[in-house]
Amino acid sequence: MSTIRAFIAIELSDEARAVLADVSETLAHEAPRDGVKWVDPDRMHLTLRFLGDTAVERIPDLATAMDEVGGQFEPFTLILDSLGCFPNERKPRVVWVGVQGDVSQVEALSASLNRVLKPLGWEAETRSFRAHLTLGRVKDRRGGIVLPWGKRVAPAQTRVHEIVLFESRLEPEGPFYIVRHRSELHD
Q: How high is the mean pLDDT of the chain?
Protein backbone atom coordinates (compact mmCIF):
# COMPACT_ATOMS: atom_id res chain seq x y z
CA MET A 1 0.00 0.00 0.00
CA SER A 2 1.44 3.36 -1.06
CA THR A 3 1.44 6.17 1.52
CA ILE A 4 2.11 9.89 1.56
CA ARG A 5 2.89 12.27 4.40
CA ALA A 6 -0.12 14.61 4.39
CA PHE A 7 -1.59 17.70 6.01
CA ILE A 8 -4.48 20.13 5.44
CA ALA A 9 -3.64 23.82 5.36
CA ILE A 10 -4.43 27.34 4.24
CA GLU A 11 -2.18 28.86 1.59
CA LEU A 12 -0.93 32.40 2.19
CA SER A 13 -1.18 35.45 -0.02
CA ASP A 14 1.92 36.71 -1.81
CA GLU A 15 1.72 39.83 0.37
CA ALA A 16 1.83 37.76 3.57
CA ARG A 17 4.71 35.61 2.27
CA ALA A 18 6.71 38.75 1.41
CA VAL A 19 6.22 40.17 4.91
CA LEU A 20 7.14 36.85 6.52
CA ALA A 21 10.27 36.65 4.35
CA ASP A 22 11.32 40.11 5.57
CA VAL A 23 10.61 39.18 9.20
CA SER A 24 12.62 35.95 8.88
CA GLU A 25 15.55 37.76 7.30
CA THR A 26 15.59 40.37 10.06
CA LEU A 27 15.33 37.75 12.80
CA ALA A 28 18.10 35.67 11.25
CA HIS A 29 20.46 38.58 11.99
CA GLU A 30 19.22 38.80 15.59
CA ALA A 31 19.38 35.09 16.43
CA PRO A 32 22.67 33.27 17.06
CA ARG A 33 24.24 32.15 13.81
CA ASP A 34 22.82 28.75 12.81
CA GLY A 35 20.64 28.81 15.94
CA VAL A 36 17.38 28.56 14.00
CA LYS A 37 16.45 26.60 10.88
CA TRP A 38 14.33 29.14 9.01
CA VAL A 39 11.39 28.03 6.84
CA ASP A 40 11.49 29.02 3.18
CA PRO A 41 8.72 31.67 2.81
CA ASP A 42 7.48 29.94 -0.36
CA ARG A 43 6.68 26.88 1.78
CA MET A 44 4.89 28.75 4.58
CA HIS A 45 1.24 27.92 5.22
CA LEU A 46 -1.20 27.76 8.11
CA THR A 47 -1.64 24.11 9.06
CA LEU A 48 -5.18 23.18 10.03
CA ARG A 49 -4.53 19.49 10.56
CA PHE A 50 -1.45 17.28 10.24
CA LEU A 51 -2.47 13.82 9.04
CA GLY A 52 0.89 12.02 8.94
CA ASP A 53 1.38 8.88 6.89
CA THR A 54 -1.75 8.47 4.79
CA ALA A 55 -2.64 5.72 2.34
CA VAL A 56 -3.02 7.11 -1.17
CA GLU A 57 -6.28 5.19 -1.51
CA ARG A 58 -7.69 7.38 1.32
CA ILE A 59 -7.31 10.62 -0.67
CA PRO A 60 -10.84 10.44 -2.20
CA ASP A 61 -12.33 10.02 1.32
CA LEU A 62 -10.28 12.97 2.55
CA ALA A 63 -11.37 15.07 -0.44
CA THR A 64 -15.04 14.31 0.27
CA ALA A 65 -14.62 15.20 3.96
CA MET A 66 -12.80 18.43 3.08
CA ASP A 67 -15.48 19.39 0.55
CA GLU A 68 -18.13 18.83 3.23
CA VAL A 69 -16.30 21.14 5.63
CA GLY A 70 -15.57 23.74 2.95
CA GLY A 71 -19.27 23.91 2.14
CA GLN A 72 -19.99 25.01 5.73
CA PHE A 73 -17.78 28.11 5.68
CA GLU A 74 -17.72 31.42 3.87
CA PRO A 75 -14.41 32.98 2.78
CA PHE A 76 -12.73 35.05 5.48
CA THR A 77 -9.63 37.17 6.07
CA LEU A 78 -6.57 36.63 8.24
CA ILE A 79 -4.07 39.35 9.09
CA LEU A 80 -0.48 38.87 10.26
CA ASP A 81 -0.10 39.92 13.89
CA SER A 82 2.96 39.48 16.12
CA LEU A 83 6.00 37.33 16.84
CA GLY A 84 5.71 34.44 19.26
CA CYS A 85 7.19 31.07 20.13
CA PHE A 86 6.37 27.61 21.47
CA PRO A 87 6.55 26.41 24.18
CA ASN A 88 7.78 29.56 25.97
CA GLU A 89 10.22 32.48 25.69
CA ARG A 90 12.79 30.92 28.06
CA LYS A 91 13.24 27.85 25.87
CA PRO A 92 11.73 28.56 22.46
CA ARG A 93 11.60 25.64 20.04
CA VAL A 94 9.36 27.09 17.33
CA VAL A 95 9.42 30.73 16.19
CA TRP A 96 6.12 31.90 14.69
CA VAL A 97 3.91 34.80 13.70
CA GLY A 98 0.35 34.79 14.95
CA VAL A 99 -2.71 35.94 13.09
CA GLN A 100 -5.69 38.12 13.83
CA GLY A 101 -8.85 38.86 11.87
CA ASP A 102 -11.35 36.03 11.52
CA VAL A 103 -9.43 33.75 13.90
CA SER A 104 -12.66 32.20 15.21
CA GLN A 105 -13.33 30.98 11.65
CA VAL A 106 -9.93 29.26 11.50
CA GLU A 107 -10.56 27.62 14.86
CA ALA A 108 -14.03 26.48 13.75
CA LEU A 109 -12.58 25.16 10.47
CA SER A 110 -9.98 23.13 12.36
CA ALA A 111 -12.63 21.77 14.75
CA SER A 112 -14.89 20.81 11.82
CA LEU A 113 -12.02 18.98 10.14
CA ASN A 114 -11.40 17.06 13.38
CA ARG A 115 -15.07 16.04 13.47
CA VAL A 116 -15.22 14.75 9.88
CA LEU A 117 -11.82 13.04 10.06
CA LYS A 118 -12.55 11.05 13.22
CA PRO A 119 -14.88 8.53 11.47
CA LEU A 120 -12.16 8.13 8.83
CA GLY A 121 -9.67 6.99 11.46
CA TRP A 122 -7.89 10.23 12.46
CA GLU A 123 -8.34 10.90 16.15
CA ALA A 124 -8.97 14.50 17.19
CA GLU A 125 -5.90 16.55 18.11
CA THR A 126 -5.21 16.50 21.83
CA ARG A 127 -3.50 19.91 21.85
CA SER A 128 -5.67 22.98 21.54
CA PHE A 129 -5.45 24.60 18.12
CA ARG A 130 -3.53 27.88 17.90
CA ALA A 131 -3.43 29.57 14.50
CA HIS A 132 0.18 30.45 13.70
CA LEU A 133 2.69 30.59 10.86
CA THR A 134 5.98 28.83 11.59
CA LEU A 135 9.02 30.95 10.72
CA GLY A 136 11.67 28.60 12.07
CA ARG A 137 12.68 25.81 14.43
CA VAL A 138 15.27 26.43 17.11
CA LYS A 139 18.21 24.02 16.81
CA ASP A 140 19.80 24.72 20.20
CA ARG A 141 17.51 23.18 22.83
CA ARG A 142 19.35 24.84 25.75
CA GLY A 143 17.45 28.08 25.21
CA GLY A 144 19.16 31.41 25.14
CA ILE A 145 17.63 32.64 21.90
CA VAL A 146 16.17 36.03 22.60
CA LEU A 147 14.06 37.65 19.91
CA PRO A 148 11.57 40.54 20.13
CA TRP A 149 8.69 38.33 21.30
CA GLY A 150 5.36 40.07 20.95
CA LYS A 151 6.63 42.53 18.34
CA ARG A 152 3.97 43.30 15.77
CA VAL A 153 4.69 42.66 12.10
CA ALA A 154 3.27 44.43 9.05
CA PRO A 155 -0.47 43.57 8.87
CA ALA A 156 -0.45 41.72 5.55
CA GLN A 157 -3.74 40.03 4.71
CA THR A 158 -4.65 36.63 3.35
CA ARG A 159 -8.13 36.08 1.97
CA VAL A 160 -9.02 32.47 2.75
CA HIS A 161 -11.27 30.96 0.08
CA GLU A 162 -10.14 27.32 0.17
CA ILE A 163 -8.45 24.62 2.22
CA VAL A 164 -5.77 22.44 0.65
CA LEU A 165 -4.65 18.84 1.12
CA PHE A 166 -0.89 18.71 0.69
CA GLU A 167 1.53 15.85 0.30
CA SER A 168 4.85 16.62 1.97
CA ARG A 169 7.97 15.00 0.55
CA LEU A 170 11.11 15.40 2.62
CA GLU A 171 14.04 16.28 0.38
CA PRO A 172 17.66 17.13 1.37
CA GLU A 173 16.97 20.83 0.73
CA GLY A 174 13.78 20.75 2.81
CA PRO A 175 10.16 19.70 2.42
CA PHE A 176 8.54 19.80 -1.01
CA TYR A 177 4.74 20.17 -1.13
CA ILE A 178 2.36 18.75 -3.72
CA VAL A 179 -1.30 19.79 -3.82
CA ARG A 180 -3.51 16.69 -3.70
CA HIS A 181 -6.92 18.40 -3.35
CA ARG A 182 -8.49 21.86 -2.98
CA SER A 183 -11.83 22.46 -1.28
CA GLU A 184 -13.52 25.79 -1.88
CA LEU A 185 -15.23 27.72 0.89
CA HIS A 186 -18.72 28.78 -0.19
CA ASP A 187 -20.18 32.29 -0.26
A: 94
